[in-house]
């Protein structure tokens, strides 16, 4: 869609609007209801002092914020900060390393390129049933050498997550990099740009949408990950949100479901806010398209 | 040249930084602080790492402080999720990274012992100070592996607002409950026994034992053999009874613990079979409750399992002396057992502390206790699963022939135990 | 270091884009003439590599200090690679690949390697640690307190520099060490049944005892010259008891002997001490067992009866999960890719909500909502129907797919939204102008172009769902169970959760078996994916 496209921002009127646009709103509304109902259920549980996740079917019969105020005495603030730090660093690291790798795969032809690509994909398919045991052992040995990368360390956990930086995301970016015309690089190279300059100043801005998507995906999956995190992190003040919430939920008899629900509702906010902020970059690919024209 | 100087500088700086980290991050609990204060008042120093799950950690926080003030030893409490604490302990002790002490339930003993991750505890002459069932619960192959601090068992809890006297048999109790349901529109269930999709053999066990079908044969000293005792005619009778309760909708698979708890608090049932863990909630809801033994369904006395909580010492602890002192001398003292009873709401395992319990409800629970601890053999996990799921299938009517389902279960359990 | 390599070399032939081809202007000594010359970038690179080198050298020194030769070797290799990649002119692709690959090597490949190693051992409950751990555990567990013996208040002493116990027996103070059975200790002061002072020996205070915890608890003092009388040991440094070992380890023959029956236990190939008539001592230790784990699953008659059913469902689940989430995600992405739709921002934000909640929480919520008697779906949405969503074998399968769709479509929606941006709008416009209908445009233009970037993700998503243990475990636990099945395997169990049942829930954890089956599953999924991936090659050349 070029910038000169005259139809772009203008919405059609009358019958044509009904035919081309209205159904999209209908789809949107239906989907939003489907998405939101289970979450309203959680929200409702979080507003009941002794809420449970399986019991009541009456939504919002009581509105009480004691679960929300109760969160702060339990280390929830720490967890939130930890989660944000860990996920942000992991997301940025994943984007940088993944983009670099995608650039290499997309722009250079080298021996072992195809097999490395395939290998990356295959590595992701390994069932991680024993991952926790292996990572635990690895971190014990690392702790003797680099204490900061050992158990119960935020940085240690980030490094474990960065181990998965190349992988599916690289493919997503690789595909997107391929759509950026190589003539652009050529032109820049003739102008004397180094490969580094081409990467940072020409390619990266053009692939911004996919970088943001990958960053977001990485952020979200790290945000919800608790299996590795609960092995690595051992003290309450180091927990991430997912680990903390998991611990609450794992109490078979007296699980504080009200607190849990409140914690989960608040936990979803950063992700939604992040998405709201980043959304315009994702869609700004439309402008990137104009370069291609 | 330039680079080598530069990197030498960086190496130096980085090494310093790392060295600083290594001394700082080794123990987050402020190990350094403890040793510096140690010189002033108490003589001891050092750190004991204690694993405890989220259900018990609040009771142990003040104790850790108390022990530190008393002895100078830092007790570092590590909170583990109750779903993971046991498996993590088994995995981590051999690496040398496990804790010195782990707080847990006695039915972990078998797995811990067969993995060699705990060491025997010498109670010596103190042994007789504890309730016998609590010590035999932690006994495995003749040695004691844990120091008991609390016992718990389920019983019948009655909402005195809805029923004031309780019949002697379970059938009569159901009839009475159904009468209350018919009379009072807020009451929906004659009696609540929690189940859930995975089943809950633990909460049905009092009924099962009343048919004379205990899970394993017991030796005279209370320890279990590996011989399954719940098969045969008595088992069949119980299975048929389950089917009957399922058909009458007295038992409902959809009622899990949470649901039963909520319904009872809302006054939807005169009776609930449950343990002391919900008592605080009942009190908070200003309920007037009485705790009674579960009436017999099959003619014999109903005997709920006794669960015992206690402390194990890791086989690989570097601080055996301190760990022993903390576990045997400190946790085993009357003052601490009383404190744990007050914060945890369970009967103390130490007889002298138990005798001083003044809470009527806890006393009633203790009176309804059986003499059989939950079995602690390592295969118990799979026993529970077959057991619970078969009961669910009988209750829900998926297994139409209860006798056959029960026999299949017994043979499946046997196979699982034989490996 | 870098400068010597500036001399131009022809790079490997490249297919058209010539990534590492350099302009001939770039020669030694040309530093200042162009603004683009390695100014800031070079220094940043140098600083970063220097830091990495510093950390690496530090790591090598420390690792050597603690004798972690594996780490020393890996770090050295890593440093060589890093320095080669960043200071060699030839390794341009490596410059971009090395950081990610290093992390991958350390954290992911280690996991794989470790799993492969475990697959050939009997690691699991009962075979949890090393042989020496097993020996000390067996020894510790098989000490019996001599019946009727007293508890001795003990004083830990240093007798001529050697750790010993001082006790009071029949009013007589006695002292003994590891090599010296108890013998009278003359001139000792006894208070309250305990030795408090004695000439020639140093009495340790509790704090000192605690510091030598290991030595004290391992100290064994013979009660008399006759070993059969038993030995004194203490666990708490204040009270000692007389023990006699039930099982005695003999290091020279590497056997345990039962003190009463004389039965000997010798180490077996499977990491246990076993007696002649087959009695096994627990715990055992970890040993290699060859391919046993790989065949065990197939020899287990309980498994073979259910294997086909579970495998079919696993494939169906993985395929349907990918298909449903992808098409719903793509559909929604296209619906809201039309710039004329107002409020797209809000729609998009709300659509990713299911993804923003931690997945295990959502699974729990859905489990509650699908409850037959009390669930929101039956009670409110269906006005009191009693549909057994998670209890009926087919409905449970449907529910699992439905919940997975709910959980998974935002991911596909996000990806497709991003990927759609890469499709040049003018291509579509011109197709429309040529009279192609919307479906035609989708089939012939949008989908193929999209597939270029998305196809590998679909393969990865297939593999992910193939092993989607968490969802099944949280939502149905694999249930509803097959009535009377000899394993706890149900209608929604995937291969991976079946392995879990076999390896972990049938009594004892068997990591060796779990690893072996993980590897078999990996080979199966990997092969399918590899074939699929080869097919996408043709797409990619578009």
CATH architecture name of the largest domain in chain B: 3-Layer(aba) Sandwich
Task: Please tell me the overall pLDDT of chain A.
Answer: 83
CATH fourth-tier homologous superfamily of the largest domain in chain B = Periplasmic binding protein-like II
- Total strands of chain B: the figure is 14
CATH topology of the largest domain in chain A: MetI-like fold
Spans of at least 5 consecutive residues with low confidence of chain B: 1-42
Count of alpha and pi helical runs of chain B: 17
Q: Assign a percent range to the helix content of chain A.
A: 55-70%
Strand proportion of chain B = 15-25%
SSE topology string of chain A: HHHHHHHHHHHHHH
Number of helices of chain A: 14
Structure description:
The complex is a heterotrimer of chains A (293), B (419) and C (542). Chain A is 70% helix and 0% strand. Chain A folds into two domains: 1-64, no CATH class; 75-292, MetI-like (MetI-like fold), CATH 1.10.3720. Chain A has 14 helices and no strands. Chain A is flat. By secondary structure, chain B is of the alpha+beta class. The longest helix of chain B has 24 residues, at 2-25. The radius of gyration of chain B is 25 Å and the shape is globular. Chain C is of the alpha+beta class. Helices cover 52% and strands 12% of the residues of chain C. Chain C is built from 18 helices and 17 strands. In chain C, the strands form four sheets. In chain C, strands 1, 2, 10, 11 and 12 form a five-stranded antiparallel β-sheet that branches. Chain C has a five-stranded antiparallel β-sheet with strand order 6-5-4-3-9, with no helix packed on it. In chain C, strands 13-14-15-16-17 form a five-stranded antiparallel β-sheet, covered by helices on one side. Chains in contact: A-B, A-C, B-C.
